[in-house]
Amino acid sequence: MVIAVDGPAASGKGTIAKALASHYGLPHLDTGALYRAVALSIIRAGDDPADAEGAARHARMFGDDLLHDPDIRSRRTGAVASVVSAHGRVRDTLLARQRAFAAQPGGAVLDGRDIGTVIAPDAAAKLFVTAGIDERARRRTAELAARGHDAELEAVKTDLIARDERDRDRDVAPLRPAPGATILDTTALGIEDAVAAAIEAVEAARGEAVRPGT
Ligand SMILES: Nc1ncnc2c1ncn2[C@@H]1O[C@H](COP(=O)(O)OP(=O)(O)O)[C@@H](O)[C@H]1O
Ligand SMILES: Nc1ccn([C@@H]2O[C@H](COP(=O)(O)OP(=O)(O)O)[C@@H](O)[C@H]2O)c(=O)n1
Predict the structure, then answer these.
(1) Structural domains in the chain, sorted by start
(2) CA separation for the pair 115, 128 (Å, rounded)
(3) Which of the four pLDDT bands, split at 50, 70 and 90, describes residue 149?
(4) 76-95 per-residue burial string, b: 16 or more CB within 10 A, e: under 16
(5) Which ligand is located closest to the Cα atom of residue 166?
(6) Distance CA 117, CA 64 (A)
(7) Which annotated residues bind ATP (predicted)?
(8) 101-130 in b/e burial notation, b at 16+ Cβ within 10 A?
(9) Which residue ranges have their beta carbon within 6 Å of ligand 2?
(10) What is the ipTM of this complex?
């Protein structure tokens, strides 16, 4: 079974995707980490994120060690990731790796922005996780502070709004719910309740898949 989990920044999609992977015994891919790794590679090289061909070169050559580098979680890396992710050539370069992950025997859980729309449009279950901007800013600020990154609530909120706008307004693979996705608003839900609601949505989608047209 393939489960697609999409949504805006800091909505809780990664937390939900990891919990679903553990619940169903499936491998999980955080696709945002790929875009963040490309961004960090560009930042460290001192290159220009607006240069599409240069960014695509970083997408082809970055080392997998960057996926585990704590600096991919910084505010700056997140902001640059949303600039490089708007380049079609960067997205094309990262496509095969994500499709292959989704196609492995037994299935997988992937989270990102375009999993249900582009990477795995035939996924058995699609979730679009959202939360109000103030709650998302609160969660990300706490997370950044816990990781030792610079985190001031209003600045984090401004970052998230700018990133969401770029992700929604880009021409290639813009952020939007896939057709048939279940919208899961976690604003008023703690992690446990959000995960329970996600499992319920996956079970409902599976039920529909075995009873087509009913
Ligand atoms: N429902 C929730 N209630 C409270 N905190 C949450 C909830 N879901 C996630 N979090 C916390 O918010 C932060 C961002 O969550 P994460 O899953 O990484 O979001 P995303 O993958 O959408 O960026 C993490 O610190 C996580 O523990
Ligand atoms: N499938 C994906 C995943 C991430 N991204 C981009 O990568 C950036 C960082 O993604 P992320 O999932 O790590 O961000 P958070 O939601 O964790 O803050 C996003 O703002 C998007 O611009 C994307 O375009 N497509």
Answers:
(1) 2-210 (3.40.50.300)
(2) 10
(3) confident
(4) ebbbbbbbbbbbebbbebbe
(5) 2
(6) 26
(7) 7-15
(8) bbeeeebbbbbbbbbbbbbbeebbbbbbbb
(9) 9-10, 14, 31-32, 35-36, 78, 81-82, 85, 112-114, 163, 167
(10) 0.98
